[in-house]
Design brief:
The chain is of the alpha/beta class. The chain is built from 71 helices and 65 strands. It has an eight-stranded mixed sheet, sandwiched between helices. Strands 52-51-50-49-48-47-46-53 form an eight-stranded parallel sheet. Helix 49 links the parallel strand 47 and strand 48. Helix 13 runs parallel beside helix 17, helix 24 packs parallel to helix 33 and helix 32 runs parallel beside helix 33. The N terminus is likely disordered. The structure holds nicotinamide-adenine-dinucleotide. The site of nicotinamide-adenine-dinucleotide (NAD) has 30 residues, from helix 6, helix 12, helix 13, strand 11 and helix 14. The site of nicotinamide-adenine-dinucleotide has 30 residues, from helix 6, helix 12, helix 13, strand 11 and helix 14. Its cofactor is Zn(2+). Its EC number is 2.5.1.19. It is an enzyme of class 2 (transferase). In the 2nd section; belongs to the type-I 3-dehydroquinase family. Belongs to the EPSP synthase family.
């Protein structure tokens, strides 16, 4: 299995004698050893009990010591067994602590250095004190670890020292005694034993001990001379100590009593520097540490590495002990002695090898480690298993849930066992490797699997990505490199990637997780960047990079890294691939096995396993499904499987139908096919053998069965009887054995010998998929299959009954897989089977036929009776053919065959022939043959030979309806052919991964091919190879695998040597993951990896990938709800896919370029460059001086050059702020225009942002600032000269509007509006720069919510928006967008309009529709000012308006067409509403071919040819508008009701799932009906507006009333469930909202404490379609989850574990019942929204500490909210600590035990560059708050102001000398916020304390959030979910506060 592995028996380095300083435990005298550590009174240590040890790990007996050393070479698979009670000899040889505490040992470099167990602190303290003859024990740790774990460690060390040295020593010790004594005597071991009688109970029990960590310096001393006050709380009072001590002085060790000192550093990689190392060393010197010091590193890898390095060099080296506290440190960094610090040149570049003397891996630490850190460590575990042990890798795969549960604090024994096993296994592998190659000769390199690329990624993306996360990506990529070299196969890559992904680790740079964590930076990492960093990898030799390669999971390619060319690595890393067209000569046929069809792959695997003999299976598809099937079959011992032919084939040796129930449950993920097939197979576990040959097989199975499972049979044999096992002491601190697991979880693991059931289980989705009919059929036949959880779904517990056989009836109208399952298992039934399919119809007969056919291939012929529904299956044994090739996926097979066609070569697909039943299998015979290819087919192969290169001929029209997926391949062939090919019948291809017809047209054109697009297909005018050229830039694949593969075929058909680039190369992975390897290796085409080159036409006019959105005719439903802006995390968190091109900021000096630029840069994760500063740095003198020396001209020249250089250096990922005069020179303007693509003939490379601010404000500010050079001219003249240039050069414009709401009369001193400005700009950039499609149909790019299906826009009809500001909130209630009618504004001047947009933006969150309506179209804008109008529209795009209305008229005039097309080109992320208004009522809604019944006048006009102007019909207009708009708006004029009916008919005729959103309505009074019926952004008015924008406009409330009367908006009832609720404000909230929007809904109280009652109310009203939803409060919030009242849960509800909102969703898809109840939790959103309001949406995150007070249900939502906001730390206090502990474990926080001082203690220690902001959330009722020391929390004087936080906006504003801007709410010069969820009284004790005089005097300054506000906010979120509408918050709040009585 692992032939490359070192010989396990080969000798390794002989154990070195222990260094003298160590008193090794093994030298302890036997007889007294036990008593030596008898614990002090009251702290009795557990007596000798069972020991659980890995067989290959150090054990306790003397002989075992030997075994341990040699056995460490066997493959280090950890197995647990039970050792007999230690024999006397073991006691004799080992010190007592081994029998008191149980642990696992691993030998490193011949010493038993590594000790792993649970709760080791007491043990390790004694071990250190006893074993190390030192004067000082110097602990180095970090703040996080110190807070949680240091106290206990200090206390235990204290006790250990007391135990060993006697308590009175303290009393008598003089300062001299306590001073380290160099060269003091060695410990006299025999004397230690005299501690037998050592007394003393500890005077400070662990749980009440508070270390002096928080009171000042971050270092301390334990057991210093008694005059040191900081140790007072630690040391027992002298009198106690003396009184308690009976120790005879003569029995004490003669060496001096050691002291303990500690030093705490801030957490994180940033401290791993030379500077911190020096700080620690200085501290050690200061603390009097000498050579007799042992350094103890307590922490993760950072602490271990740095403290290790300190120890390595301190006084030329002192010993180091590692106490790893992270998983990563336990399995990796603590072992091996590598120590280092980071330096500017790179990570870990300065360090030393310094082996630790001890490593204590206390698993207990993992339970406080944040989940992400645990998963981070799992990357290293997975890594080790991946290169070393397939078996352990399988454990990782299965153990995902358990590991995560463990990390969350779940202490169940199975999880503990599993994770311990993984840790020790990994540690053993690492120690094995280290032992055999201490100083990195070669073998040690293998530990670097995944690290060559991983480290490079880490160098670029840290600290956003953690080490393990980078290693995870690195492993998968390195494995792909191995695949590209033919070393491993695709299955290996996939298995590895799947396992990493299961642990929540990213596996690609484009992984959404990586993108989110890095704010989009991961997408910008190029292959070249990675290669560049890899250049300094220490494994490189002679300039060649070397990577560790695995052959398969668990097997190394070689025991060292392997040299790899950069070219190969680049190919894997680069996002795009360059193909070099090959020579086109026919040679011998290329034989290709194409990835198999998925259905056939699964069946082939199953049958080969059930058959006798060996079969080499080729052509398997590597998908999740097949992988799961394979693993399950192996587990069931159905077959043994080996890889062959370099991984291209599998040799399956079947066991003739004998299967064995595995000892553990079989996890099938979401693999549906596997679950069905295996259910039928699992019953066979009990089948009796039938033939002698079967019996032989069975025997072999039996013997292999002994190897099965996780328990070593030898160990099993040694196991004690159960009765003894149960004797395990309660105090046991070790993980249980497998045997214990057996007894505790009989269903998880079985004893192996007696028959037991098979348990099949899957993921949550799988547990919902049906399998009931199959189970029913099998049970009816005598099988025993039980449902483990839910009736009808997995998990299944399948008894090994065998299949009785005979007649079986099966209902087959759900899945043909049920039929196939029984068919395939049936030959092994005890009697021949007659299977009859019952029920109405049989689904997918084709698949049943496929099963029958493949069964025949494996030797079993099934008879199908003439009724067509009955199958007779004989008793038989499948027989394996020697080889079986799975038939290809026929669509995939088209590519290599087309390759033959276009290159004039011969290709044989070896696994698809005439016998195939797949539609696309006819591609060769029915399509390629027509082109003149020679096609030869056998039953199972297809060979195509293309005509000589250049001789392909177009084939005229072809209907591809029978094989639509193959049309893309056909396009490639048709393009290389000469002549036309017209492809029809493929309209379904418009709604695949992308609109494939448009996509192909677009991309073919880029190769120089002429194409004509039609609704149902296209015509390719092939011009032969002569007419083809490679496209400029990369081929765009629309993330569609078929586009990518067909386009690569076309690229290969170009003339020899031409190079084409195909982008998004990874999209082929969907069906053919190693396609590019195949192209290179098998088709002989040279490939290079290239970093993506942007295609010039990226601004895609046709929008080939259409958003499937909205626009359909449904009423509102819960699914329709787009929560209002900012209300869900999705809005902000998932917006990171930004176009990364650099932004250049221009604008007047003093506009805020630097301030706002740097804030934006921080928030968009970009680099900020201040060009002035850069220039000064570059030239070495100030700008003043430069101007003095060289004059303005010289300065301008230098400035321009600096910008050129900066753009070259930072083409992406940066924000550059230029000086104001950059536009003064022609050269400057040219450069900017070229950057923004605004200069003739340039392609847009990036963005130019013009930041503009009222010139008077600028002047006022500039005259104040004396630090800048004066202008030679008047400021205003400068502005007038430049403003045109700014506008010409910019692509984005942002106006800084003065004043809080943009209204002029504000307090001139009040500049707090800058907060809003900053937020607005960041949001704007997020939206405008987001890449055009993030695939989320509910959001615009950038996360701006798209209006829901039912939506409204309010048309603003003011001449000046300022006058609308006071009523804006009121008039927009319930609307989803605001239309700014520019034509109605007082002035159409660009500057005026720009300001109007800015004011609107400042005063409303709603998206803006920018409309300039011309007179001819019913507006007020002069028809003739076309150019000025388009200039306005262009500017609207620059200003970031979400929608721009473009009137599509005069489209036949070239100049107008040009204007329209240019606008579309520039639209970026805005949406264009293509509009057309027929104000005259001349245009008909009916088709031109139909008589115009609708509009008589228009119809008549058309018929008479008298219509004025070019009269059209709306249907034909629609077609034109469709080309231009993202949204189409058609407005007619109703003269009679039939006009509305015609409109209705028209709308129905054009609506479909992929049609563009449509606004269609008729104006006029009669047309009002059509307004009410239009659903998508219906224009509305409001009574408070001066005039409606159009005749007939209605308000939202009117439309709702109208729809209700028509029955389109049914009445709904909403409830509040819970008790007591009599005083609830919820009815006020919701009923006010309903009324305001005219919704026919009511909200009432339904007081109950019983969930059954709640359920019955819901059932009653939901049945009649009246139930809309409900609020749920105490005590039912958790009940509705527990009892399944909520049938589906939102993610938040799931994580919080409670529901406060129920939503009814109605729809046919919910079956007979017709509805489904969805549970959500909005409490947390209420908290978040209110906090955001106070601290800005940038709040949360680094430097923020969340504090939750209380431990009840609401506190769960609070914890969740704080975590979601990104609080770095979470602290929880509750009266009952256990509850707080539980919450802390679950949400990744820490429980605090005492409120007093708690906030103060969380302040960042002095010297740290961080600032702390607190978000305190109280969740206990006000009455219960009395008596809690809330004031103590706030009142303790902290004496220090919050420190600067360099990661927050605060530092930006405080450190940048700009524009006189002070950001207030964004700068938390407040201490934070205090939220109280209790709302009666309004000012609760908690809130009162937070702002009490005492708190203020202590320097605290909190903002308060009252419970009533949260109540409203969470209610708003409910309202949005129920109604699909934004709640009208002002009137609701007004009503609530009115009703609310103190
Ligand atoms: N020497 C080696 O052979 C080697 C090998 C691998 C990695 N490394 C180094 O290790 C470092 C990464 O180590 P890491 O991942 O352990 O990071 P880390 O040391 O920074 O720890 C991660 C975080 O978890 C916190 N933490 C640690 N233990 C905790 C506990 N029990 N409970 C709560 N919080 C806890 C820490 O304070 C820190 O914030 C890197 O510098 C890397 O170079 C070294």
């Amino acid at each position: 299995m692992t032939e490359n592995r070192p010989d396990p028996t080969s000798p390794i380095r002989t154990p070195q004698p222990h260094p003298p300083i160590l008193a090794m435990p093994s030298s302890s005298p036997p007889s007294t050893a036990h008593s030596a550590l008898s614990s002090p009174v009251g702290r009795t240590l557990p007596g000798p009990t069972l020991m659980f040890q890995p067989s290959s790990i150090r054990t306790t007996s003397a002989s075992d010591v030997q075994r341990s050393d040699s056995s460490s070479h066997v493959p280090p698979r950890v197995q647990f067994g039970v050792n007999p009670t230690p024999s006397s000899s073991s006691v004799a040889r080992h010190p007592t602590f081994q029998t008191d505490h149980k642990f696992l040992r691993v030998s490193v470099l011949g010493h038993d250095t590594y000790i792993c167990g649970y709760n080791l602190t007491r043990y390790l303290a004694r071990d250190i004190v006893k074993s190390f003859n030192v004067a000082t024990i110097a602990i180095v740790t970090d703040e996080n670890v110190a807070r949680i774990h240091l106290p206990k460690l200090l206390v235990e060390l204290h006790h250990a020292i007391d135990d060993v040295f006697g308590v009175q020593q303290l009393h008598v010790a003089s300062a001299e005694d306590a001073t380290p004594q160099p060269g003091s005597a060695q410990p006299v071991i025999s004397k230690i034993s005299t501690k037998k009688d050592a007394p003393t109970s500890p005077t400070s029990p662990t749980d009440t001990y508070t270390p002096p960590l928080t009171s000042g310096p971050s270092s301390g001393t334990l057991l210093r001379p008694s005059h040191d006050s900081s140790t007072a709380s630690l040391n027992p009072s002298p009198s106690t100590a003396v009184a308690g001590s009976n120790t005879p002085v003569s029995n004490l060790p003669s060496r001096p009593r050691p002291r303990v000192v500690y030093h705490v550093v801030p957490p994180g990689e940033t401290v791993k520097t030379r500077e911190y190392k020096a700080k620690i060393e200085d501290w050690m010197f200061g603390a009097g540490c000498g050579r007799d010091t042992v350094v103890v590193a307590v922490g993760g890898g950072v602490i271990g590495d740095m403290a290790g390095f300190v120890a390595a060099t301190f006084m030329r080296g002192v010993p180091i002990i590692q106490i790893p506290t992270t998983l990563l440190a336990m399995v990796d960094s603590s072992i091996g002695g590598k120590t280092a610090v980071d330096v500017p040149a790179g990570k870990n570049l300065v360090g030393a090898f310094h082996q630790p003397r001890r490593i204590y891996a206390d698993m207990e630490y993992l339970q406080t480690l944040p989940l992400r850190e645990v998963l981070n460590g799992m990357a290293e575990v997975v890594k080790t298993c991946a290169f070393w042990s397939e078996e352990d890798f399988a454990l990782c795969e299965e153990g995902v849930d358990r590991v995560i549960e463990f990390a969350k604090g779940n202490r169940d024994p199975v999880s503990r066992d599993l994770i311990t096993r993984l840790v020790v296994s990994s540690a053993r592998v690492k120690s094995y490797v280290v032992t055999n190659d201490e100083k990195e000769g070669g073998l040690r390199n293998v530990l670097n699997f995944g690290h060559s690329i991983g480290h490079a990624i880490e160098a670029i993306l840290a600290p956003d990505l953690l080490h393990g996360e980078c290693v995870s990506i690195g492993m998968v990529l390195e494995c792909e490199v191995a695949r590209a070299l033919g070393i491993c196969d695709q299955a290996t890559v996939e298995r590895l990637a799947r396992c990493c992904a299961a642990y929540g680790l990213p596996t690609r740079l484009s992984d959404p997780l990586a993108v989110r964590l890095t704010g989009g930076r991961s997408l910008r990492v190029s292959a070249e960047q990675i290669l560049e960093v890899m250049r300094v990898d220490k494994k490189n030799r002679a300039g060649r990079k070397r990577l560790v390669m695995i052959k398969s999971i668990g097997t190394l390619h070689e025991q060292d890294a392997t040299a790899v060319d950069d070219r190969v690595i680049r190919k894997v890393l680069a996002p795009a691939v360059e193909l070099i067209s090959p020579a086109h000569q026919s040679g011998p046929a290329v034989l290709m096995t194409v990835p198999g069809s998925k259905s056939l792959s699964n069946r082939a695997l199953l049958l080969a396993s059930l058959a006798t003999g060996a079969c080499t299976v080729k052509g398997l598809l590597h998908s999740d499904d097949t992988q799961v099937m394979l693993e399950a079959l192996k587990r069931m011992k159905a077959a043994s499987v080996e890889h062959a032919e370099d991984g291209k084939a599998l040799v399956v040796t079947g066991n003739g139908g004998t299967v064995k129930a595995p000892d553990v449950e079989v996890y099938l993920g979401n693999a549906g096919t596997a679950s069905r097939f295996l259910t039928a197979v699992a019953v066979l576990a009990g089948s009796k053998a039938r033939t002698s040959s079967d019996d032989d097989d069975k025997e072999s199975v039996g013997s292999s069965g002994a190897e099965d499972g996780d328990v070593d049979p030898q160990i099993r044999a040694k196991q004690k009887p159960r009765s003894e096992q149960t004797k395990v002491s309660e105090d046991s601190v070790l993980p249980p054995t497998s045997a214990m697991i057996d007894s505790a979880h009989p269903t998880l693991r079985h004893s192996g010998d007696k028959p037991h059931p098979t348990t099949l289980t899957g993921n949550a989705r799988m547990k919902q998929r049906p399998i009931g009919d199959l189970v029913a059929a099998l049970n009816a036949n005598g099988c025993h299959i039980a449902f483990g959880e839910r009736e009808g779904s997995l998990p299944l517990v399948i008894q090994p009954t065998g299949l009785p056989g005979g007649k079986i009836s099966l209902s087959a109208n759900i899945s043909s897989q049920y039929v196939s399952a029984i068919l395939m298992a049936a030959p092994y039934a005890e009697n021949p089977v007659e299977l009859t399919l019952v029920g109405e119809e049989v689904v997918s007969q084709a698949y049943i036929d496929m099963t029958l056919s493949i069964m025949e291939d494996f030797g079993v012929k099934v008879e199908r009776l003439p009724d067509g529904r009955t199958y007779r299956i004989p008793r038989a044994t499948y027989v394996n053919p020697p080889d079986y090739t799975v038939e290809a996926d026929a669509s995939s097979a088209t590519y290599p065959l087309a390759f033959a066609a276009v290159t004039g070569t011969t290709v044989t697909v070896t696994n698809m022939g005439s016998r195939s039943l797949q539609g696309d299998s006819k591609f060769a015979t029915e399509v390629l043959a027509k082109f003149g290819c020679v096609v030869e087919q056998t039953e199972r192969t297809t060979t195509v030979t293309g005509p000589a290169f250049g001789q392909l001929k177009g084939i005229g029209t072809i209907d591809m309806e029978p094989m639509t997926d193959a049309f893309l391949t056909l396009c490639a062939v048709a393009a290389v052919a000469v002549g036309d090919t017209t492809i029809v019948g493929i309209s379904n291809q418009r709604v695949k991964e992308c609109d494939r017809i448009s996509a192909m047209c677009e991309q073919l054109r880029r190769f120089g091919v002429q194409v004509a697009e039609m609704p149902t297909g296209l015509t390719v005018h092939g011009a032969g190879p002569e007419g083809l050229h490679p496209p400029e830039g990369a081929v765009k694949c629309y993330d569609d695998h078929r586009v990518a593969m067909s386009m690569s075929v076309l690229a290969m058909g170009l003339k020899q040597g031409l190079r084409s680039i195909v982008g998004e190369k990874r999209c082929v992975e969907k069906t053919w993951p190693d396609w590019w390897d195949v192209v290179e290796r098998e088709m002989g085409v040279s490939l290079e990896g290239v970093d993506e080159v942007v295609a010039p036409e990226d601004e895609d006019v046709t929008g080939a990938k259409k958003e499937v959105v909205v626009g359909t005719k449904y009423g509102p439903s819960a699914l329709d709800v787009v929560p209002y802006a900012g209300s869900t995390s999705v809005v902000r968190a998932e917006t990171s896919k930004l176009s990364d091109a650099t932004i250049v900021i221009i604008g007047m000096r003093g506009a805020g370029k630097s301030t706002l630029g740097s804030i934006s840069a921080k928030n968009l994760a970009r680099t900020f460059v201040d060009m002035d500063a850069l220039l000064e740095k570059k030239i070495g003198i100030s700008i003043h001086e430069l101007i003095d020396r060289e004059g303005w001209e010289g300065f301008r020249k230098a400035e321009l050059q600096a910008l050129k250089d900066a753009l070259e250096l930072h083409p992406t990922g940066a924000i550059l702020a230029c000086g104001g005069g950059i536009v003064e020179t022609e050269g400057g303007r040219d450069l900017l225009k070229a950057w923004g693509g605004k200069r003739e003939g340039t392609i847009r490379k990036g963005h130019v942002l013009h930041l503009t601010r009222d010139i008077d404000d600028v002047i006022e500010y500039l005259t104040r600032d004396k630090t800048r050079p004066a202008y030679p001219e008047e400021m205003r003249d400068v502005w007038n000269r430049r403003k045109g240039w700014f506008s010409d050069c910019s692509t984005i414009e942002f106006v800084v509007v003065k004043g809080k709401r943009g209204v002029v009369n504000v307090d001139p001193e009040d500049e707090t509006y800058w907060d809003d400005v900053a937020k607005e700009l960041v949001d704007r950039l997020r939206h405008q720069l987001a890449q055009v499609d993030d695939g989320n149909a509910k959001f615009f790019p950038g996360g701006v919510p798209l209006p829901p299906r039912t939506s409204y826009f309010l048309a603003l009809t003011f001449g000046d928006v300022r006058t609308a500001v006071p009523v804006l909130e009121e008039v927009t209630r319930g609307a989803d967008a605001i239309e700014l009618r520019v034509d109605l504004l007082k002035s159409h001047d660009q500057g005026y309009v720009r300001e109007q947009v800015a004011i609107l933006r400042r005063n409303s969150d709603l998206p803006i529709i920018f409309t300039v309506r011309t007179k001819g179209q019913g507006g007020n804008y002069p028809d003739e000012d076309v150019n000025a109008m388009f200039e306005l529209l262009e500017n609207a795009l620059k200003w970031g308006c979400e929608f721009v209305d473009m009137e599509v008229i005069g489209e036949d005039q070239p100049s107008r067409k040009d204007l329209m097309e240019t606008l579309l080109k520039h639209k970026g992320n805005s949406k264009i509403i293509a509009s057309f208004h027929d104000f005259e009522g001349n245009v008909s809604w009916d088709n031109p071919t139909q008589p115009a019944i609708g509009n008589l006048a228009a119809g008549q006009a058309i018929r008479d040819g008298k219509a004025s102007g070019p009269v059209s019909t709306f249907p034909s207009k629609y077609k034109i508008l469709e080309k231009y708009g993202d949204i189409i708006k058609l407005i007619g004029m109703a003269k009679q009701r039939s006009d509305n009916h015609a409109l209705e008919r028209f709308v129905l005729s054009v609506s479909g799932p992929s049609s563009k959103p449509l606004i269609a309505l008729n104006m006029g009074a009669i047309g009002q009906e059509s307004r009410a019926l239009n659903t998508f952004i219906t224009p509305v008015t409001h009574p408070a507006l001066p005039v409606p924008a159009a005749p007939g406009q209605l308000s939202i409330a009117q439309i709702h009333q109208f729809r209700h009367l028509l029955g389109l908006l049914p009445e709904r009832k909403f409830f509040l469930f819970g008790t007591p609720i009599a005083h609830s404000q919820s009815p006020t909230i919701h009923n006010t909202g309903f009324k305001e929007l005219g919704l026919p809904y009511t909200y009432t109280l339904s007081e109950t404490g019983s969930w059954e009652e709640l359920q019955s109310v819901i059932d009653k009203h939901a049945r009649s379609g009246r139930f809309g939803g409900a609020s749920v409060t105490i005590p039912l919030k958790e009940d509705v989850v527990r009892h399944g009242v909520a049938e589906e849960l939102s993610d938040a509800a799931k994580q919080i574990g409670a529901v406060n909102t129920l939503v009814a969703v109605y729809g046919a898809e919910y079956g007979e019942k017709g509805y489904r109840i969805v549970g959500d939790n909005t409490d947390w959103l209420g908290i978040r929204r209110s906090v955001w309001k106070r601290l800005g949406t940038f709040a949360g995150g680094r430097g923020t500490v969340g504090v939750v007070i209380g431990g009840g249900g609401t506190s769960r939502a609070a914890c969740f909210a704080l975590k979601q906001m990104g609080c770095e730390e979470l602290r929880i206090w509750n009266r009952t600590s256990a509850k707080a502990e539980r919450l802390a474990a679950e949400f990744g926080g820490v429980a605090i035990h005492e409120l007093k001082n708690s906030l103060k203690s969380l302040f960042s220690p002095e010297g740290s560059v961080r600032e702390t902001t607190f978000i305190v959330v109280g969740t206990i009722p006000a009455q219960a708050q009395n008596g809690i020391d809330l004031l103590g929390m706030f009142a303790e004087p902290n004496g220090q102001k919050p420190l600067l936080n360099d990661t927050s906006l605060a530092s930006v504003s405080r450190t940048l000398p700009v524009a006189g801007i002070t950001l207030t709410s964004l700068t938390p010069n407040v201490s934070g916020v205090v939220v109280d969820m209790a709302y009666r009284p309004r000012r609760t004790p908690l809130l009162a304390h937070a702002v009490s005089p005492d708190a203020l005097a202590a320097g605290w300054s909190f903002k308060l959030i009252e419970g009533i506000e949260i109540l409203c906010e969470q209610g708003f979120e409910q309202f949005a979910r129920w109604t699909g509408r934004k709640p009208p918050s002002s009137p609701i709040e007004a009503a609530v506060y009115r009703e609310y009585r103190e």
